[in-house]
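Holo prediction — zinc ion.
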Amino acid sequence: MTLMGTPGSDLISLIECVRALEGRDSAARGEKVITTLKSIGLKPFIQSCRWPRIRNVIVDFMPDSTDKRLLFSAHYDVVKGSPGANDNASGVAVLLGLCDQLCRVPRPVRVVFFDREECWFRTPLLSLGLLGSLFYVWKEELQNVAAVYNLEFCGQGDFLGIWPVKKREIDLAAVKQAQAAASRLGVPFRSAHIPWQLFSSDHLSFRLRGFANAVTLSLLPSGQIPILEEMLATMSFARLLIGKRPLLPEPLSYIHSHGDSAAKIEERSLKLMLSLLLELVRDTSD
Ligand SMILES: [Zn+2]
């Protein structure tokens, strides 16, 4: 299986990207991301740290533009023992597809493939991850960023989830723009507040640094939305604290397990998420 694409060739195959990343460890995934970017003619910048060991992979389009840029991200690292297809080869594949498109029609965009999102410290009450994105927000200026769209679980379904969005955050520009992009494409969507103790991702590092306009985009099958609604209605921090996890929508139930395989990934979902990102990019250039 190859991730190859050559400058000027057809789009890289998103599903082939997922298959090529599936079952590899985090370091091998990082290398695959870098070789794929190089194969489409890009020169990624590696932001690295020796201890803790971190290798974030960054690509800038129109680096000399003075416009504020959109930042798209996805973590490429994986939990040991999981094939890591939906979490998060799916997000990485969509970002590689976005890079391929932006090679042809550049826009002021930064794409970041984060390392070390997954948990490195876990107790029954607390788990800590996000090392790659915490390192990034500590090192980088955020004044020239218009919005952050982070990707997780993009490989199954047709229904867009925008999270975490509390009631007071529904007017965030990133939320409004993601909703508008989904509406224009006829994609059903819902924004939802998901407590970080249940699910979190690299958007949180930006928020911790004071950059509020950062959300994560995910897909779920429409048929699983009633289960999502039930989950949102019944979960609470107190219940999580005593170890009561809610019933999860099916694609989320096998995250971090051996069941997260590429066999479950749907190419049309990956393409749908890529269309949404291109719609967000197009929106800024109108
Ligand atoms: Zn993840």
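READOUT: The radius of gyration is 18 Å.
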